[in-house]
Each structure stands twice: as C-alpha cells, then as structure tokens.
User: Fold these one by one.
Assistant:
Number 1:
Amino acid sequence: MPRLGDALKAGIKGFVNASKPGEYSAGGIKVTCPHCGNAVFKMQGPFSFQMWEGGAAYIKASLTCLTCGLIQWFGEEPEKLKTYG
C-alpha cells in the first residue's frame, strides 16, 4: 500500500506535467498548428463565457502554439501525447 507522502508526490508530479507544453491529439488526430505547422502547444482552460444574448459557450480547453501563438479552441479536452520541459 503506497504511503501518503508517495501519493502526494505523484499528484504534484501529475499537476506539474499537465501544465508543461506538449503534443496533443483531438478526435484521434494529432494536433498541429494550421498556421506554422508546429506540434508543441500549451493547454489552458476550461473557459465559460457569454457569446450572445441568451447563449453561452463552454470551451473545455484551448491549445496555444508555442511557435506563432495561434490559439485553437476545443469542445472536448485533447489527449496529451508527449510532455516537454
């Protein structure tokens, strides 16, 4: 049975790795930047905001390209394939 300290260390490591840049897939397809072709992104989200009167949007994640800064929005959270840094 793992000790509490080991469990906490694993949780912190998972949190830190989740915030690092990486490669992602969405809908089973590897995500690349349509502007520059880069494949390394920083994930942010979720976001909820009012888009129009009486309607709202909920974005589960956004990926920001680390090369050109283009932001892509996703209604479902992309799967992280590889972590950098």
Note: The mean pLDDT is 82.
Number 2:
Amino acid sequence: MIGFSLQASASGKKIMHGEACGPGTIMMVCHQEGDWKAIKKALEEVGCPITAGQLGLTEQEIIKALVFASNASKAFSYSILTEKPLTEESAAKLAEKTGII
C-alpha cells in the first residue's frame, strides 16, 4: 500500500514501484517497532533509493502518501496501519526518525 501511495503522490514524477517499496518498508517496519535499521542498511548497500530526495519526492509528498495509505488501509486491507493509523504529525515523525525525510 505504501509503495503505491508513494507513486500516486509523486506529482507527475515516474517512480518504479520497487523503488517506492524500499522507503515504505523501512517506515512500516519502524512503525511496527521492528529492526528497520537493518533493512535500511541492506537497501543502502545494494544502492536502492531510501530517501525522499533519492526518489525525487518532497517531504510533503512522503507525508501525504503515508496518511493516504493509512486511510486507505481501513477500507481495503488489514495492516499495521489498521492497528496504528498515521496522522500528518505522526507520519512526519516516522519519516524523520527513519531518515526518509
């Protein structure tokens, strides 16, 4: 859900789905209190984009995507976002904590 949301919030920029999944995975594992640093390190080591800047996205586009995915998860699927929804404030904190923004 996060990967698709990042692609949709990209304001006309073309982002491959796989590229969007890296930062999304990092943030969602952090949101679940998992070992997101290990995932981030592994993605960095193989050269995957892991920041908003590397994807060509703004901070606001990242936050918008997180909030959109959080709202959409209620209607379409069960995920960590169903249990722990994100607001603009909590999405920004999550993205900052993981270094995505």
Note: The mean pLDDT is 93.
Number 3:
Amino acid sequence: MQFEISPLVIPATVDSDFAEMVRVRNEIEADAVGNYDLAYEPAELLPMWQRNWEHKVMNVARVDGRIVARAIYEYDDETSPTAWPLGRSAHSFSASGDRFGAV
C-alpha cells in the first residue's frame, strides 16, 4: 500500500482528481452531519476554488493513487503570519473503498 500527501492542482474544468476530491468531501460532510444535505456536484464547487483573491491550498491524501482524505490551508496573503488550517482528521476507508469513517 502506497500513501502520499500532495497539493491538488485546481483545474480549469472538472477533471477526475477534482471530482474524486469532491466525492471524498461529500462523504466527510455526510459523516459529520448525518446526511448529504451539504453535498455538492464538482461543477458547483469548482468556481469556489478558482477565486484568485482567496489564498488557499487543497492537499489530498492518496492510498494507492486513490484520494481518501483532504485538508485545506487558508491564509490572508503571502506575507501574513496568520493562517487557518481547515482540514479535518484523516479518514479511514474500507478495503473495497466504498465507505469512509472518521478516525
């Protein structure tokens, strides 16, 4: 099993990595609130990540190439000492990869 954490490049249009990150995001939110009321489609969420006036970085964790968790780092600007890590704890996944749960 190979584990990797890396920044997710925000695409100009929805690609497979962005769609997979959104799927993971929706699972995390559903786990937190108990339903999928806060779920987004990738095309709905993408414009929120393309805002160039907001300074933020999306990191994803991959196991064997599959995105299994995400973390967000926001900051005021490139010279500010203030930052807000917005990621949640890593999430576990079943061997079949069909269910996520908080660790």
Note: The chain has one domain: 3-94.
